[in-house]
Amino acid sequence: MGYRSSVDIYTEWDIVAARQLGRNEAKKTGFGTVDQARITTAISELARNIYLYAGKGKIEIERFSENGLYGITIIASDEGPGIPDIRKVMEDGFSTSGGLGAGMPGVKRLMDEFKVHTESGVGTNITITKWLR
Amino acid sequence: MNKRMTEGINQNIDVIIERWEISMKEEKGKNFFHFMPSHLIEKTSREFAALMTSNIAEIDVVTPEKLNDFTEKVVRFGWSIKFVNKAIDNFSRIVFRLLEEKDVINQSNLRSFVTIFENWISSLRENIIEAYSMEWERTVSLQKIALQELSASLIPVFEKISVMPLVGTIDTERAKLIMENLLEGVVKQRAEVVLLDITGVPVVDTMVAHHIIQAADAVRLVGATCMLVGIRPEIAQTIVTLGINLKDFKTTSTLQRGMQEALRMTNRIIVEAE
Fold first, then answer.
1. Which sign does the torsion angle of CA B101, B104, B110, B111 carry?
2. Keywords in UniProt for this one (chain A) (predicted)?
3. What pTM was computed for the model?
4. How much is the pLDDT for B148?
5. B14 & B135 share domain
6. Between β-strands B225-229 and A113-119, what pairing exists: parallel, antiparallel or unpaired?
7. Which of A93, A118, B24, B77 suits a disulfide with A83, CB 3.0-4.6 Å?
8. Is B237–A45 a contact, with Cβ atoms under 8 angstroms apart?
């Protein structure tokens, strides 16, 4: 386990704080500008989903090393209504808020690992990971 | 009662200040005493002590004007609110102990002195907190105004060509402002081509892209063409990975190339003068 830091998401500006933190951590891990942009954008999407759909939640960022490999893991958790149909959400172009519907499938493509745990009325927990190559 | 207290304080002011300084130096963490030269510490301490005692000195009831005067000065010291709070705490505790030592406060009048102290300190503290939070609110609202002034003005560069440089984070509020200024400007400046420059936008996620697409659509509706310029390589890759479709309008890497394209679209070229 590595060093973990977190940002609480309550307002739109917390999204900015979360991705600022993400960018710094990604930089410290050693990611290049393209991967930094990918990680930052992924955090931005997840944080915005928390803000839009759950109202409040948390973004946790952890740098880690495993068998000589380095990486960064981001955990987005909230106690919101949960995602009713996860398969639909992962389709390109599906949105309930009038957006582009590219957020969730986009995040999956931006990162190397993508895990969702969601329960109706309990909340959502999304864990994403990017490895340093 | 107050008079005896004031006398007691004034007679022993040097001891009080000395003890207070020692207690404040013991405070850990960021306090200004560590960075201050000693003569400044001395001066500031005296000023602070004078301010603290001025409230109970001449009059029984503290007037709001006097309190405001006090807080204004304390805020100007530039101390953190935590430090000021501690300073007031320590000061009152030291004064109380000293007055006890000098037998100004004893068993018989303890209760009434406690009341005096409470009135004295709590009104100070309330005022300090209010002054600080007002100062912060003022700063935040000023910065908000500054940010709004920065955001999104449409600049006419050539006849029929206007540029809107976007710098910084785009949130919902700014997106609205961008849209309004863009449409108003296009009509007013009779622009035919509008260049939206996102060189200064740190992150382009789906929401930002959505706002840009909507803005470009709206520009088309009022009869002009919108171009997205200043797309950095890493942003281009992220947009592609996200699967955002920007095929409906022209995009270029730099403002310069966008400008050349815009001139071409309005059938003009720039030539060097002979």
1. negative
2. Kinase, Transferase
3. 0.73
4. 74
5. yes
6. unpaired
7. A118
8. no
